[in-house]
């Protein structure tokens, strides 16, 4: 009788062990989709965060006349390891039935690898030093960005009006010209607020052109007439063409000079609040007016972007970096600055295009 009980319990043990081993792979089947769902979001957030930090870091570098450097995420690869372990013990006594101790454990291990690619050579020239194409500026407008924000960030000259062109490089010593340009783009914004402005891109004889079309109902409005007067164009027209080199005969054409992406970054770097100790030590250029007074760059870029500085790590920030013994950040409640920074990231993406994943300069196994 005892032998019979032992035989039965042995068979039960055998089948239970088979069941554990069979159910283990079934659980494994769910780990792939689950890990993909969770890890993709984590990678997305991590890459977005580091991209923002790199952009802010380079803005601060430019203000201090330090060398900017762009390191792109070329590729992200990850390996997943899943280990299952099953165990079973039994107390085999003739008078005791079905006393089994079953055990199962699963270990999950991830090994991500990130490849970084620096921007240099032709890619650096194309992405960073080349001026923004008029087609890109038109695309930004059609993507929902306000005409005022797009023009202020991307253009340094419109119809003879300067938008602080000297700020497209290291901080100038003399205060820039910018007020008439701001008036002109504000008039355009007023027209656009009435849904009376349309912008199209075209090429004529291989020359890129951006066409400003004002509706017939709005072409004689105060905003349209003031815009024409400010840029020294013929008033009351429904179409003005922007190109790089208009001829004297093209009376309805206005000259436009876009900035390069590096020029945009130099321009927006003027919005950084520099710690007083660095100002006193002469680590940044102080801009003066013709009368020798200090010029406040907030008048130019303040309502577009404000990058604050602090000795302590900020508690509420959209993005922050630690550089030269100070924290630099964009306040999370500063919606206008967040919008301009988001626009900057989109311009960078449009200029960059596809990032090649070959020739990584550095490959790191995260967590190694």
Please explain how this structure is put together.
The protein has 368 residues and is α+β, with helices and mostly antiparallel strands. It folds into 2 domains: 50-82 and 107-130 and 260-353, no CATH class; 133-259, no CATH class. Helices cover 40% and strands 25% of the residues. Strands 4-3-8-7-6-5 form a 6-stranded mixed β-sheet. The protein has a 3-stranded antiparallel β-sheet with strand order 1-2-12. The radius of gyration is 31 Å and the shape is globular.
Annotation keywords:
single chain, 368 residues, alpha+beta, 2 domains, 40% helix, 25% strand, globular, disordered N terminus
Instruction: Give the spatial strand order of the biggest sheet.
Output: 4-3-8-7-6-5
Q: Provide the helix percentage.
A: 40-55%
Q: Which regions contain 5 or more consecutive residues with pLDDT less than 50?
A: 2-8, 354-364
* Average pLDDT over all residues: 84
| Relative strand content | 25-35%
Measured on Cα atoms, how large is the radius of gyration? Answer: 31 Å
Shape: globular
């Amino acid at each position: 009788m005892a032998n019979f009980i032992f035989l039965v319990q042995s068979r039960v043990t055998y089948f239970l062990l088979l069941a554990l081993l069979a159910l283990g792979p079934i659980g494994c089947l769910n780990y792939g989709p689950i890990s993909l769902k969770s890890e993709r979001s984590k990678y997305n957030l991590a890459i977005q965060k580091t991209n923002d930090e790199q952009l802010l870091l380079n803005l601060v570098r430019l203000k201090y006349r330090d060398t900017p450097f762009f390191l792109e995420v070329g590729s992200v690869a990850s390996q997943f390891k899943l280990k299952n372990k099953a165990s079973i013990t039994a107390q085999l006594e003739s008078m005791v039935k079905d006393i089994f101790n079953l055990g199962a454990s699963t270990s999950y291990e991830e090994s991500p690898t990130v490849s970084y690619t620096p921007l240099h050579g032709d890619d650096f020239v194309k992405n960073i030093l080349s001026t923004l194409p008029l087609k890109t500026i038109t695309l930004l407008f059609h993507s929902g960005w306000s005409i005022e924000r797009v023009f202020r960030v991307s253009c340094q000259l419109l119809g003879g009006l300067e938008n602080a062109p000297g700020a497209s490089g290291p901080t100038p010593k003399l205060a820039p010209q910018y007020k008439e340009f701001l008036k002109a783009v504000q008039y355009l914004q007023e027209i656009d607020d009435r849904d009376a402005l349309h912008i199209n891109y075209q090429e004529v004889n291989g020359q890129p052109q951006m066409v400003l079309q004002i509706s017939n109902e709005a072409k004689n409005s105060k905003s349209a007439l003031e815009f024409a007067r400010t840029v020294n164009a013929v008033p009351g027209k429904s179409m003005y063409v922007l190109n790089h080199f208009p001829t004297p005969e093209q009376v309805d054409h206005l000259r436009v000079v876009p900035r390069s992406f590096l020029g945009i970054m130099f321009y927006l770097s003027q919005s950084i609040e520099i710690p007083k100790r660095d100002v006193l030590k002469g680590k940044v250029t102080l801009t003066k007016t013709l009368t020798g007074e200090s010029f406040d760059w907030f008048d130019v870029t303040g309502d577009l972007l404000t990058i604050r500085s602090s000795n302590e790590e900020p508690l509420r920030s959209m993005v922050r970096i630690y550089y030269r013994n100070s924290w630099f950040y964009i306040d999370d409640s500063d919606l206008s600055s967040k919008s301009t920074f988001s626009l900057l990231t989109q311009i960078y993406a449009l200029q960059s295009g596809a990032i090649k994943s070959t020739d990584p300069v550095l490959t790191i196994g995260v967590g190694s």
